[in-house]
Amino acid sequence: MPQPFSQGSQLKKRTSVLVFLKGTTAPIVLYVDNPTELYEELAQILRVNSPTPKLIEKNTNGPVKKVCIQSTQICAVALQDEQYL
């Protein structure tokens, strides 16, 4: 049976950016200081839909420390809220 949270524990929320790449089933989950800004940057790249590839390199705060993605390989981006202790 699950134990209830103690009164001292507080659930916190963090937002990650999910980057879906062509030919993959699972997204890359990125934790950054300003997830909305990264989301908007990647969404703008999708809106422009340029056939010329652009290399996107980002430092992140989570398990993935640095990522490098070719712009033409991105097919979707999303923001995800996660709760943690």
Describe the structure in your own words.
Strands 2-1-5 form a three-stranded antiparallel sheet, covered by helices on one side. Helix content is 16%, strand content 40%. The mean pLDDT is 91. With 85 residues, the chain is of the alpha+beta class.
Low-confidence stretches: none
Tell me the β content: 35-45%
Order of strands in the sheet with the most strands? 2-1-5
Structural class: alpha+beta
Per DSSP E runs of 2 or more residues, the count of β-strands stands at 5
Put simply, the count of helices is 1
SSE series: EEHEEE
User: Given the C-alpha coordinates, what overall shape results?
Assistant: elongated
Question: Tell me about the biggest sheet?
Answer: 3 strands, antiparallel
Average pLDDT reading: 91
Rg to the nearest angstrom? 16 Å
Structural features:
5 strands, alpha+beta, 1 helix, three-stranded antiparallel β-sheet, elongated, 85 residues, 16% helix
Topology:
Layout: E1 12-21, E2 28-30, H1 35-48, E3 55-59, E4 66-70, E5 74-84
Antiparallel strand pairs: 1-2, 1-5, 3-4
Please outline what is shown here.
The chain is of the alpha+beta class and 85 residues long. It has one helix and five strands.
